[in-house]
Amino acid sequence: MIVVLEQIFQVGFLAAIIRIATPLAFATLGEMFSERAGVLNLGIEGIMLLSAMTGFTATSLSGSLWLGVLAAVLTGALMGAVHALFTVALGLSQHVCGIGVTLFSSGLAYFLYRLIFGQQSVPPSIKSFETLPIPVLSDIPVLGPAVFNQFSLVYMAMAAVPLAAFVLYRTPWGLSVRMVGENPRAADSAGVGVIATRFQAVILGGALMGLAGAFLSMVQFNAFTFGLVSGRGWVAIALVVFGRWDPWRSAGAALLFAFVDALQLRMQASGLGHIPYEAFLMLPFIFTIVAMAVMSRNAVAPSALLKPFRREER
Amino acid sequence: MSTPAPLIEMRGISKSFGAVVANEAVDLSVAQGEILGLLGENGAGKTTLMNVLFGAYAPDAGEILVQGRPVTINNSADALAAGIGMVHQHFHLAPRLSVLENLLIGIPGKSGRIDRAGGLARLAEIGRQHGLMLDPGLPVSALSIGEQQRLEIVKALFRGARLLILDEPTAVLAPTEVDGLFSALRSMAAQGLGIIFISHKLNEVRALTHRCVVLRHGRVTGRVDAPASTTSSEMARLMCGHEIVPPAKGPSSPGAAVLTLDAISTSRHSGMALADVSLFVRAGEILGIAGVSGNGQRALAEVISGVLAPDAGRMTIAGKAVSRFSPREVQALGLGRIPEDRMTTGLVTNLPLADSMVLPRIGTAAFSRNGLLRPDSIRAFAEAQIKAYDIRCPGPMTRAGALSGGNLQKALLARELAFDPKVLIVSQPTRGLDIGAARFIHEKFLDMRARGCGIVVIGEDLEELLMLCDRIAVMYEGRIVGTLDSADATIARLGLMMTGVEGHS
Ligand SMILES: Nc1ncnc2c1ncn2[C@@H]1O[C@H](COP(=O)(O)OP(=O)(O)OP(=O)(O)O)[C@@H](O)[C@H]1O
Ligand SMILES: [Mg+2]
Questions:
Q1: Residue B411 shares a structural domain with residue B443
Q2: Which of A230, A236, B23, B357 counts the most CB atoms within 10 A of its CB?
Q3: B227-243, pLDDT tens digit by residue?
Q4: Is B243 helix (H, G, I), strand (E, B) or coil?
């Protein structure tokens, strides 16, 4: 136990938390924007995978990392638009369409990857981003090298949280998003375009999911594999509930999950070898289930979540 | 010589929903500073017409002119830009957002941010001008119905409305709140605003409006130029096409008590709890429960209908003690109920009307056998009731939510009365109904009374209670402060008791 506690306060451990949390934070914020506008996006798992693939491919073909990030973001936004087309414009079931988007995007990702790279004995990889130490701040003992000597995408995630909170709570557009998620009829009669606002929120959400995918294939693994996302999208959906549809809380939830995940990785590695490693792998998910059960009791979802809006209906 | 163009003019507006013609070639205009009454039976097309004006529905034909200039109104944003604001029958607010946020929705911000300071200043200014004060920080869910309505009005003024549409604003208000609303409306009209006011209460229409337009089956069938000097019965004749005579109430001959409550107390109720409530209703009599809403009426209705089990006290129905307080038990003992909120607890809006009409008795032999439903008998029952009560709808398989308020209420009444209840409890029986429909409901109650049913009517409309009831009990803060015989009761006396002053016959 002492061993474990000591490890928590190591630079490597803290840095691991941050790195695990980054894609989750992007994905959670993305899902949160979508749900705040009243649209559940179960396409998240597939959108992350497809974006990871397009990002990786763009970088690997062009050699430019930022071009890859851009490709991933555009892919996410595009798939968000597809989901919005079915659920917002056509008013179809959000569950069915979301799962459809995930299946379609995953299939497309596998297909295109095989088409472009073929079957290779050594999977292609790219040269990843390098860490970017922030002057002065990165000199803080322990915390500095862990938090302020990171990849630019990590810094973007850190900035995304307050930015998302600002947009959601302080801008007229954010108010519109919250209103169409609570009572679309009220938004409509106040002159706000419900369909347009929902489209925008779902597309923004998709773009953030794209960033999450980009981080996985371009920073965390430097390669694209089919198991790349492995449930992180589903976890993000749970974290949104855990975070009560609030940017700060959602980011906190992502950090907490990342902490448990990093912990179980350490436990796997640190001499508790007589326990099968699968047991540790379960830990973060058990944590998610328990946390959800406790927290979701007084969490209130946006009132109009899952409800399509049609004007002349009563 | 040319008269100035009216503030708003609608010409030849038609609108259909499938086969239902809701508006047909309607002409209507409002001048600056004018309060126009829009009258008509339930389903006459008043709300539809106003939704067309406000851009929520696209008309099939017709044009809209603002100060003589034709405008195209495709959505609410266009309507707001043309200076038209609307307070809907069911409010368009987000309960979990604050008053200020609900006010600022759709308003462009200042340098990219929501303009809170500007919003607060305007809110205070409008509040001062018309006596419409609101606490900007509260979530809307914490507001009373009257305050929510005030917020809707302020929202419209905030957006620079020059014409304000109010769709049955008084249906949800307590009598005291109505006065406040009227003085605000008069103050706005005095400043040159045009107002369209929809109400089924003709005395209100006569007191407030300058001119009236009457709709019937979607067409304009009458105009009243001097409402104040027109009698209510004349207006009623324009609306319904025939005279409306008050129902004759025969002398009462009450029998044995069919419902008794003995020292009932409740706790943990979302509204006001009951404290030591005792009352009785005899066969063949109507007991009114008067009181400002929120003084325990909901808890009382829930206890009687077996939804809420009391902490203490006893209740009997037709002489038998209620032991478990479940809706099924009280129903088996002979209780029928018509809940206050037709849309949420009354029926299932997304299911066919027929299903809702048999819902309370779905498990009985009449509608199911061997655990399976009998769709044919369910349909036949609904069809028979639709016919007997003249419920206007395309058929028993219509989605219940598509019916107008009056027709919904008839459907609920039909479903309870079909089973000859010994006791009937109803809340706000005619809220939102036109006078014809209200009269119909009243007649049915008096019918049931003559046949020996005991009826409890919970309501805020004192005139209605006085007309209908044999005795009236007044509730205040979860207690019964007194019971009067109708003969001894006056509006003034009941009004006083509603503020907590005790009184007895
Ligand atoms: N969205 C809709 N879809 C289908 N039918 C509708 C819709 N809105 C109204 N109707 C129908 O149009 C007719 C007019 O309805 P409307 O709500 O305008 O009446 P109203 O005069 O406002 O009645 P009330 O006094 O009960 O409010 C009714 O027959 C109604 O069933
Ligand atoms: Mg109406």
A1: no
A2: A236
A3: 889 888 888 888 888 88
A4: coil
pLDDT tens for each residue of B93-128: 999 999 999 999 999 988 889 999 999 999 999 999
pLDDT cut 70: percent of chain B above it: 98
Q: What is the CATH number of domain A2-117+148-295?
A: 1.10.3470
Q: How far is CA B318 from the centre of its chain?
A: 31
Give the position of tokens 């597809």: A82
B202: pLDDT strictly greater than 80? yes
Domain count, chain B: 3
Residue with tokens 């981080």: A215
Concatenating the DSSP letter of every residue in A48-97 gives: HHHHHHHHHHHHHHH--HHHHHHHHHHHHHHHHHHHHIIIIIS---HHHH
* Residue B466 to residue B320: CA distance in whole angstroms: 30
Closest protein CA for atom 12 of ligand 1? B22
pLDDT at A117: 92
Q: Which domain holds residue B406?
A: 346-420
Q: Tell me how far the alpha carbon of residue B23 lies from the centroid of ligand 1, in angstroms.
A: 9
- Is residue B1 over pLDDT 60? no
pLDDT over 90 percentage in chain B: 59
Residues of A in contact with B56 (CB under 8 A): 188-189, 311-312
Over chain A, what is the mean pLDDT? 91
Residue of chain B nearest A175, judged by CA positions: B105
Q: How far apart are CA B505 and CA B493, in angstroms?
A: 11
**A19 close to A131: Cβ distance less than 8 angstroms:** no
Tokens describing residue B381: 């029952």
Cβ within 8 Å, pair A311-B80: no
Is residue B297 within 8 A of residue B427, CB to CB? The reply is yes
Kindly report the three-state secondary structure assignment for every residue of B419-477.
Answer: CCCCEEEEECCCCCCCHHHHHHHHHHHHHHHHCCCEEEEECCCHHHHHHHCCEEEEEEC
The residues, ordered by sequence, that sit 6+ positions from A201 with a Cβ below 8 Å of its Cβ are A33, A34, A36, A37, A39, A177, A180
The two structure tokens encoding residue A144: 């500095």
How much is the pTM? 0.87
> Across residues A79-92, what is the average pLDDT?
97
Give the end of a domain, one of B222, B240, B258.
Answer: B240
Q: How confident is the model at residue B349 (pLDDT cuts 50, 70, 90)?
A: confident
Beta carbons of A172 and B80 less than 8 Å apart: no
Would the CB atoms of B104 and A175 count as touching at under 8 Å?
yes
Q: Chain B partners of A312 at a C-beta cutoff of 8 Å?
A: 17, 56-58
Count of other CB atoms within 10 angstroms of residue B288: 28
Pocket of ligand 1 (CB under 6 A): A 312-314; B 17, 20, 22, 40, 42-48, 402, 404-406
**Amino acid found at B63:** E
Contact A89, A202 (CB under 8 A): no
Q: Residue range A173-188: average pLDDT?
A: 95
> Distance between CA B477 and CA B458 in Å, rounded?
15
Instruction: Point out the least confidently predicted range of A170-184, A216-230, A286-300, B78-92.
Output: A286-300
CA distances for A24 relative to A53, A80, A107, A109, B230, angstroms: 17, 17, 22, 20, 70
Residue B275 counted as domain residue: yes
ipTM for this model: 0.88
B52/B102 same-domain check: yes
Looking at the predicted structure, is the pLDDT value of residue A1 above 60? no
- Confirm if B428 and B340 have CB atoms less than 8 A apart: yes
Sign of CA dihedral A170, A172, A174, A179: positive
Q: Is residue A266's pLDDT more than 90?
A: no
Asked whether residue B245 is domain-assigned, the answer is no
Q: What is the CATH number of the domain that holds B29?
A: 3.40.50.300
Nearest residue (CA) to ligand 1, atom 16: B45
CB contact under 8 A, A171 and B107: no
Q: Domain coordinates of chain A in residue numbers? A: 2-117+148-295
Distance from the Cα of B348 to chain A's closest Cα (Å) equals 13
Shortest-distance ligand to the CA of residue B21: 1
